[in-house]
Amino acid sequence: MRHFKIASGLLAVVLAFSCQEQTKEQQGTNKQEIEFNYKVTEFADIGVLRYQIPGWEELNLQQQKLVYYLTQAGLSGRDITWDQNYRHNLAVRKGLEEIYTNYEGDKSTVEWKQFETYLNRLWFANGIHHHYSMDKMKPEFSKEYLTAISTDAGVQIPMEAVEVLFNDVDAKKVVLDKDKDIVLESAVNFYEPGITTAEAQEFYKTRVADKEKPVEIGLNSRLVRRNGQLMDDVYKSGGLYGEAIDQIIYWLQLAQGVAETTQQAKALGLLIEYYRTGSLDTWDEYAIAWSTSTDGAVDWINGFIEVYNDPIAYKGSYETIVQIKDFDMSRQMSVMSENAQWFEDNSPLMQEHKKEKVTGVSYKTVNVAGEAGDASPSTPIGVNLPNNTWIRTVHGSKSVSLGNIIAAYASDGGSGRLQEFAHDEKEIELEKKYGAKADKLHTALHEVVGHASGQINPGVGTPKETLGSYKSTIEEGRADLFGLYYLMDSKLEEVGLVKDWRNYGMAAYDGYIRNGLVSQLIRLEIGKDVEEAHMRNRQWVSAWVYEKGKQENVIEKVIKNGKTYYDIKDYDKLKILFGELLRETQRITSEGDFAAGQALVENYGVKVDQSIHQEVLDRNSKFKAPAYRGFVNPEIVPIIEENVITGFTVEQPATFAEQMLMYSKKYGFLDR
Prior knowledge:
The chain is an alpha+beta fold. The chain has two domains: 31-54 and 241-624, Fructose-1,6-Bisphosphatase, Chain A, domain 1 (2-Layer Sandwich); 87-166, no CATH class. The chain contains 25 helices and 14 strands. It has helices at residues 61-76, 78-85, 89-102, 110-125, 143-153, 159-166, 197-205, 242-257, 262-277, 280-291, 327-338, 340-345, 389-395, 403-411, 417-421, 425-450, 463-466, 471-487, 491-494, 501-517, 533-548, 571-591, 594-606, 610-620, 656-667; strands at residues 39-43, 46-49, 221-226, 229-234, 298-304, 318-326, 361-373, 382-385, 397-402, 555-560, 563-568, 628-631, 635-641, 644-651. The strands form five sheets. A five-stranded mixed beta sheet has the order 5-6-7-9-8. It has a three-stranded mixed beta sheet with strand order 1-2-12, covered by helices on one side. It has a two-stranded antiparallel sheet with strand order 3-4. A hairpin with a 2-residue loop joins strand 10 and strand 11 (563-568). Helix 1 runs antiparallel to helix 8 (242-257), helix 9 (262-277) runs antiparallel to helix 10 and helix 16 crosses helix 18 (471-487). The longest helix has 26 residues, at 425-450. The model is unreliable at 4-34 (pLDDT under 50).
């Protein structure tokens, strides 16, 4: 599970860490890294940044080799993500990149600039659908212009792939509308066209799995129809994506040879075997070995992991992150892990839904050395894995905060949105003084104790089976609520994490409500429903507590000079409301109550007040910072003498296009 990716300029900086994004406007700069040029380029609603790798020079040669081999393994699977996202993505990318490289005509025209922008957007999204909204990105140039420059450059793009750029077919990568057939109408390439939601769900219900230790059925496969029968086309060596997987295996074997510990080597061996066979039993063995491998300076995430891109939450997207531990920060945050049982025992959950033993939550701050697949260019800022519930319960999990990514976001500077959307000077003062640390604490609580908390009732299926398309947003909301409940608690000061705990809690509550009800709307097109899982959970959490607290005026809706604000009047009562919603959300999860989960999300998390939405967009229009940001990766280059690696240099790419074209040339192992 990821913590949300950060969008530039959403109201306060998310110097947070956790499962795929939290949003807050940056305040200030990292003075020690002020000379480093973080900015690469901006286009459309996107900003591309660089990041550094703190701690690289402290690694010995063996450890540096391990990092290098793991990053090469990750990049070798890059094409898989493109093909998973949409069946025509690779053909489109190949054709547009060839035009970009070969075209010798006039590059000063408006149409060519529009072509460049469109190609940059595709690179950033790993395909033709927006990385966040999931909507198909339509070119501003015409089909006639594309045909003309294709001819001039001597490039042929399959006609079906050309047509889909300009028509309304496959308009959304992931459809979550409850009134639609979400599998049939989603463009994502996890299901062969023509397969319906009912067919897919019935197929996976019939798969036999150990009820006590169920594998993640369907995680590493595409559901296809062969001779009228549904079957899984498995990702493995010799199977689907085998050409890329063989390259992944090659580099993982080299990594295994320089592993720091025997447990690391064991985990890598199991990962290699998993890629060879596609066995989900082996994937579970690997996940156990990986989650219990906590020694050493280097770690990694690699596999088909997060199910956010699957409308029914079975299929894992390919991603990799290679990490170097930040030992000092990790020691500070280990306090959260050490107190995980206290948080569970003292939570407002029903007694039968509490875990008697919260097992092995490992929380560390790390520095990223390389990312690929679904984690790049748009990256999480923190991750909690493995996702399989029984493994987390029995063997524990790892939570990591991507420290250098968070630092790079912060170093990109603020934009004044805090002053625009905060209700008053007190709220601004609290955010500036306490907001960044409060975000970090929220993310740590979200990951370390939120996701680890609670248990499913005996005989109840997994959340993806019982809650369907609502599984991801309910799980993220549940973890957010756990963190919110404890952010306003003296326990944080008692264990030495903060001083002045109440002000930290107030800043966190202000920021969450401000974002959930107002500022995150800058990421949504007017007239659209909220569909992304994390945006939904922030809205349904915020809207629910606002609605339930109306009678006692817990949160007041304020109109000043035609502008809408939400002002928290009673922080203590808001904490109680967060606790009540946490209790109910855990009950929904524990009991598999689909109807209640659906009602919660649909009633509070999907629809948007269009007048407020337009107002927010108008207020935001004066800010020029891009709504979304992501990264190029540093390039780790081996120094080779007499066929032996004797060292490495770390180089920063000059441009986004340079890295994207190099990646396609060097790691383009799938021919689609």
